[in-house]
Amino acid sequence: MSKWYEAKAPHEDIVISSRIRLARNLSDFPFESRMTDEQRRQLSEKVKQALSHVTVSGETLQFTEMDSLEEIKRYAMVERHEVSKEFIKDPTHRLLGYSKDESVSIMVNEEDHLRIQVMASGLNLTSAYQQCNKIDDVLDSELDYAFNERLGYLTTCPTNLGTGLRASVMVHLPALEKSGLMNQLTATVNKLGLTIRGTYGEGSKVLGSIYQISNQITLGITEKDAIQNLESIVLQVIESEKRARESLLAEKRRLEDVVFRSLGVLRYARLLSSREFFEEISNVRLGVSLGLIHDVEISRINRMMALTGSASICEREGRELSPEDRDFVRANTVRTYIS
């Protein structure tokens, strides 16, 4: 089965992915930080039973007890955005329900009792929300959510009170970055109730000009309004990036030199670090989007990004690798997909 990130999607030249995440807690259990191991076990069993009624593309979810996985497999899931870093810190009594295409992942006993997450390729916030809302409705009919008429859904962190919704998009903004406009953009979206973070979310670095834009406000606003606000602003960011890319084309010869040098590195390198991969694939992705490169598809680039994380490489190889061995395998993988 193909993965969600391989699908063609709206605005895929700039928007890599859309994500909807809902935080939910059950009224008959204390918050996760105050639960005993026995309560965590009981909650996992209860939620797993409720999740047995959830289907994605006509198929039921698969389940994994996180403490049954090797550490490298857990980190590989973080790299593919299947689970959060918080979820793998202590895997005891933590359950993951997920779809075969990896678009749906439901984390049990994370910071909140439930984190329902749906991923979609490109700018697809509405379809991701519809899938997430469908799963939420099924669980709501089976479980007793902690809900207050004034505060909305009760969550461990007060910043999630209300809808419990975090909507985010992952965007590729090389032209705005090269133009020195990212600080201005960050200040602007902050005033509009959004935030811009690094490639892997809060506290992470920016790799390959890839940023996450997400909502900050969850209280006093409906889920649909939060999503519409994010989407409307992302569309403006897309237009800004397109204008900046047109400016880069004014010096087409220089741009082509950068793009095709990066393509050459990816096609012929024998050792490729993670940081170098992101830098070069960013230039190649820009070249594909501007029609300078014709024999590489965006979906193939997305797949390379999913397969070339350090933990993902070790997972496929079935063992821990030295940094140089990882760089060697990464280079081989990239050559296979980009040749």
Automatic annotation (TrEMBL):
Query: What Gene Ontology biological process does one annotation of this record name?
Result: phosphocreatine biosynthetic process
Keyword annotations from UniProtKB, A to Z: Allosteric enzyme, ATP-binding, Kinase, Nucleotide-binding, Transferase
**Regulation of activity:** Appears to be allosterically activated by the binding of pArg-containing polypeptides to the pArg-binding pocket localized in the C-terminal domain of McsB.
Signal peptide interval: none
Check the record and name the Pfam families matching this protein: ATP-gua_Ptrans
GO cellular component terms, A-Z: extracellular space
**Molecular functions per Gene Ontology:** ATP binding; creatine kinase activity; protein arginine kinase activity
Binding positions (ATP)? 17-21, 81, 115, 166-170, 197-202
Q: What class of enzyme is it?
A: transferase
Q: Where is this motif: RDXXRA motif of the pArg binding pocket involved in allosteric regulation?
A: 326-331
EC number(s)?
Answer: 2.7.14.1
Catalytic reactions of this protein? L-arginyl-[protein] + ATP = N(omega)-phospho-L-arginyl-[protein] + ADP + H(+)
State the superkingdom. Answer: Bacteria
Q: Which residues form the Phosphagen kinase C-terminal domain?
A: 14-244
Supply the PANTHER family for this chain: ARGININE KINASE 1-RELATED (PTHR11547:SF38), ARGININE OR CREATINE KINASE (PTHR11547)
| Family according to the record | Belongs to the ATP:guanido phosphotransferase family.
Its biological purpose is as follows: Catalyzes the specific phosphorylation of arginine residues in proteins.
Which protein is depicted? Protein-arginine kinase
Q: Which organism is it from?
A: Massiliimalia timonensis
